[in-house]
Amino acid sequence: MKLNQYLPVLIMTLAAIGTAAGMILLTSIIGPKKKFDDKMEPFECGVSPIANPKSRFSVRFYIIAMLFILFDIEAVFLFPWAAVYRSLGMFGFAEMLVFIVVLGVGLGYIWKKGALEWE
Amino acid sequence: MPITIPPIDLLAVAPEIAVSGFACLLLMTAVFLKGKGGWVNACVALVGLAVAGWFALCQGAPRSAYSGMYAADGFTQFFKIIFLLGTGLVVLVSVKYNEEENMNNGEYYALLLFSTAGMMLMAAASDMMTLFLGLELLSISLYVLAGYARNRPGSNEAALKYFLLGGFAVGFLLYGMAMIYGATGHTDFAGIGREAARGADNRLYLVVGAVMLLTGLGFKVAAVPFHQWTPDVYEGAPIPVTAFMSAGPKAAVLAVMIRVYAQSVSFMHVDWLVWLSVLAVMTMTVGNVAALVQSDAKRMLAFSSISHAGYAMVGLAAATREAVASVAVYMLVYTLMNIAVFGILALVARKNEQRTKMRDFAGLARSNPVLAVSMTILVFSLAGIPPMAGFMAKFYVLMAAVKAGLYWLVLAAVLNSAVGIYYYLRFTVHMYMDEPEEKLPPVKASPALVVAIALSIIGVLLIGVVPSAYLEMAGRAVVSF
Amino acid sequence: MSVGHYLLLSAALFAVGVVGVVTRRNSIIVYMCIELMLNAVNLTFIAFARQLGDMGGQIFTFMVMTVAAAEAAVGLAIIISVFRNRLSVDVDDVNLLKG
Fold first, then answer.
1. I need a surface site. Which of A51, B113, B196, B375 has the fewest CB within 10 A?
2. In 3D, which of B216, B214, B129 has the Cα closest to residue B170?
């Protein structure tokens, strides 16, 4: 492997980091600094916060997350299947179709049940 | 790279497909009927079980399917029939109860069917992978079922306890499987047996794996010392679910233990049987002694189910063909009688399960004599009093153990049975001799429950009077090993 | 790196999981420890599969992963319903059922 063909990338990366770091450094050095109460709030503009930002998530997030985990992980079977798809032929296709249909029944169930509705 | 696809033997797995298919159907009816139509759901579930039973009966010659991961033999068939019968009885017991508790929806029956499919897969598993999938299908459905009475804190807690401890046990089970796989390079029981017989160089892995496997299975069958979850979960879960949990899953795990032993004998050879004997004695004794002091009928039946698993494990420890057949019959009888007892308890407990104490059975003989007689027959059978099936089943298991020379084990079992008679008869004493503390309208069984109880009693009497026919049937099933 | 290293690591992970299940009181953390045990098992399977040059262990890992996801979904649902009824996920508060 020729490393020197990656040299432009390296220069580019260094330049990007340098620019970003330099800007932050410069503003913190030469910018004016005035501290007052409102500025020290977690949210600088708008109304001052009335609740702890570490409050509980709505249970709806959990439901969506749970359903996401399920469908996401079941997709793990698709990867090995896709890797050998050609040598499996029609049989592999049919098998995966069955698998997807079963997942589809589950999806249909939660959809009809209203678990995907936010409100 | 060409891939050879193993032959697809749909007839072998037809019962599982039927049960799962009907479970999916129930999910759909649950959505479209929107919680209405409890009877429809129960009927769909029963039809599904019947179809699966029919497929199971005509599964054909014993064979191994899916490149040795699935065994479709007589043994599988016998246990599949037990599971389907048990689930059918639970469905019948559930209908009225669920209506009262407002949980008579399709999902309940769908979960029952899914866990039945899991049990059938376990009984047929001849590979650790199939075993694991079946076990998890069963367990995950049961976790939900245990918490099905969503508004009852007790039910919630039962689900949480069962889930956390069940997950813990599965961790051990899997680690054991990984060790066995590492030691032998096989996941199928036959391959493991072959490899171990050759004298594996990694004997340490094998022993550690076997111990952990037994721990995981022991948890599921509620063998002492892995039983602590049982009374709490059984007490908190809705009564029909408790009935379901106490019968089928135990039979499924015992079937797995039998198959692991039979297909990879040399793998476990010496130690496995000793461990099983020790477990059996502890399970019987602790279950019985703890049952003695319970005042809650649900809890008492939980401990009694622990002790019954202990009796069945005596047969396992004997490990002869005859003993295995008698264990199969024992599980059949136990399924019949235990589910019916829970059915009667569900009736006596009334709405919201407020009366599950033993003394709540007081006066039942006067208010509903037929029910009292049924209960008497069933608890006599559980206690093992002739001529009920419970006696014959226990008798055959113990005979097999005697023939195998396990005298001390048989002695322990007999002593335990004597203890058992005491607490089972407390039901009868309460029903016939005690006055109820308060006047309540007499309980009345729903038609479905009557059918369930009648079926169990007929079964219990029939097997009790002509046990040889069933034993022969089970014997034929075991011959296929 | 030999298989032994992987096995040691996975055994350590498994042990951490077991200790966590036994000692922690928050049911979500207990469940996370159970997941840790399962992932230790996955690592063991993969290590053995590599050593043996056998696909079985890898396939087993796929199964364990997917089943664990299903279990996680059910478990979280159970924990949520307990929380709704009792406003706590501490396992010490789960004490209604005692003999």
1. A51
2. B216
CATH number where C28 lies: 1.10.287.3510
Specify the pTM.
Answer: 0.88
Residue B346 lies in a domain: yes
Confidence of residue C34 (pLDDT cuts 50, 70, 90): very high
Domain count, chain B: 1
**Gap between the Cα atoms of B118 and B108, Å rounded:** 15
Please tell me the distance from the alpha carbon of residue B18 to that of residue B51, in angstroms, as a whole number: 7
In a domain, C91, yes or no: no
Whether residue B238 lies inside any domain: the answer is no
Q: In angstroms, how far is the first alpha carbon of chain B from the final one?
A: 36
Contact C66 A73 (CB under 8 A): yes
Count of domains in chain C?
1
Q: What residue in A sits closest to C58 (Cα-Cα)?
A: A80
Residue B29 amino acid letter: T
Per-residue pLDDT tens for C76-86? 889 888 888 87
Please give the Cα distance from C68 to B162 (Å, whole number): 16
Q: Closest residue of A to B26, CA-based?
A: A109
Query: Smallest CA–CA separation between A77 and chain C, in Å?
Result: 7
The helix, strand and coil proportions of chain C, stated in percent and rounded to the nearest 5, come to: 80, 0, 15
B171 in Cβ contact with B220 (< 8 Å): no
Supply the DSSP string of B141-197, one letter for each residue: HHHHHHT-STT-HHHHHHHHHHHHHHHHHHHHHHHHHHHHHHHHS--BHHHHHHHHH
Specify the pairing of strand B70-72 against strand B63-65.
antiparallel
* Residue B329: φ, ψ to 5°: -65, -40
Contacts of B178 in chain C (CB under 8 A): 41, 44-45, 48, 57, 60
Which residues of B are less than 8 Å from A88 in CB distance?
3, 5
Which whole number is the average pLDDT over C34-61?
A: 93
In this structure, is residue C98 part of a structural domain? no
Domain contains B356 = yes
- A61: tokens are 């997030």
Give the pLDDT score at C99.
41
Quote the pLDDT of residue A55: 62
In one-letter notation, the amino acid at residue A8 is: P
Smallest Cβ distance to C66: which of A59, A76, A80? A76
What is the secondary structure of B276-312 as a DSSP string? HHHHHHHHHHHHHHHHHT--BHHHHHHHHHHHHHHHH
User: Whole domain around residue C38: which residue ranges?
Assistant: 3-86
For B348, B359, B475, the CA distances from B431, given in Å and listed in that order, are 11, 8, 39
Grouping H, G, I as helix, E, B as strand and the rest as coil, residue B296 is strand
Average pLDDT, consecutive stretches of 10 residues, N- to C-terminus, chain B (481 residues): 74 92 90 74 93 90 85 90 95 89 85 96 93 95 92 88 93 93 88 78 80 90 89 92 93 91 62 83 93 90 93 88 89 93 90 82 86 92 89 92 90 92 89 81 85 93 87 79 62
Q: Which two tokens stand for residue B308?
A: 């019954």
**A45 φ/ψ angles, rounded to the nearest 5 degrees:** -115, 170
Q: CA neighbours within 13 Å on the CB side: how many for C34? A: 24
Q: Tell me the pLDDT tens digit for each residue of A18-76.
A: 999 999 999 888 887 777 776 666 665 666 666 665 666 666 777 888 888 888 888 88
Specify if C15 maps to a domain. Answer: yes
Secondary structure (3-state) at C89: coil
Query: Domain range spanning residue B406?
Result: 326-481
Cα B50 from Cα B309, distance rounded (Å): 27
